[in-house]
Amino acid sequence: MLLKFGSAPVVVGSSVAAAKIFLKTMDLTFASRPKTSAGKYTTYNYSDITWSPYGPYWRQARKMCLMELFSARRLESYEYIRAEEMSSLLGEIFGLSGRAFLLKDFLSTVSLNVISRMVLGRRYLDGGENAVVSPEEFKKMLDELFLLNGVLNIGDLIPYINFLDLQGYVRRMKVVSKKFDRFLEHVLDEHEARRRETAGYTSRDMVDVLLELAEDPTLEVKLERHGVKAFTQDLLAGGTESSAVTVEWAISELLKKPEIFKKATEELDRVIGKNRWVKENDIPSLPYVEAIVKETMRLHPVAPMLVPRLAREDYLNMEEIFGLSCPRKFPLLAVAEPRLPLNLYKSM
């Protein structure tokens, strides 16, 4: 579907074929990002993973994610954190048996604790006396960050009126950016002090890894302090609300389909038994539960519209690629929506 948003021609790809073209077949062609106010003001001038344009910095960031931050070895080393926080969550919920409670709050807290310990090394958001920001305030900051990175800012589409900030989004972006920067500066200062004071210090969390990489003289593009903060912000934002919302939707769907809930319980009883908790290495042996998770993500994607992609080639033949009848060739802004046909309930 071809649209025109102000001065930007936009192609929305919501079919399987279009999504495959954007995200796989021509991935490098559509790998760049447009210059938006959200990227400028909330991610240290496009210094994060999400909004950085295609180039040496983007390629380096992608390599760092695959080889360092999200390597199988590193993620496996954090399994004990996920197990401890999940056990704590189940204990709290068990203590509330017979009483009504808001599940979303518990899910948000456990995902925030998990990602905080993995990325920052400890629960920076446990509400202690020396806390820089309270858990409630941090969740509000995350909600605001997600909202402002998904809004349609008129100034991005009609650049000559951007300075007017007609919707007030830019002002809000600057406010939430200052709040995050205050928190992230505190985190980095603590990590740097610990690294200086401890002889033979070894990295314990993802911020430590990023600080190590920032000192690496072999990097093609030097990772500056603001880049470390931008990466850390991405890791915190990407691993909290997205997980909580997905689990909440999964439980909601299961409650509406008791027969599915029963089959999932039977699979757990058969494979795991009733005398131990499920572990992460049990997941491949639970195809039915895994299918429920995938179907939940299909029905309720956390980001229904992906971060917009900018075509790196100035001119593309739309009729040849997408079958759109266009009188001429032109640059385009591509937005792909990931609702692929993974309806697994049909096979259950």
Automatic annotation (TrEMBL):
Subcellular location: Membrane
Keyword Repeat carried by entry: no
Domain of life the protein comes from: Eukaryota
InterPro entries (UniProt xref): Cyt_P450 (IPR001128), Cyt_P450_E_grp-I (IPR002401), Cyt_P450_sf (IPR036396)
Main location: membrane
Known cofactor(s): heme
Gene Ontology cellular-component terms listed: membrane
PANTHER family given in the database record: CYTOCHROME P450 98A9, OS09G0441700 PROTEIN
Name of the molecule in the record: Flavonoid 3'-monooxygenase
Keyword set includes Oxidoreductase: yes
GO biological process: secondary metabolite biosynthetic process; terpenoid biosynthetic process
Keywords of this entry: Heme, Iron, Metal-binding, Monooxygenase, Oxidoreductase
Similarity comment: Belongs to the cytochrome P450 family.
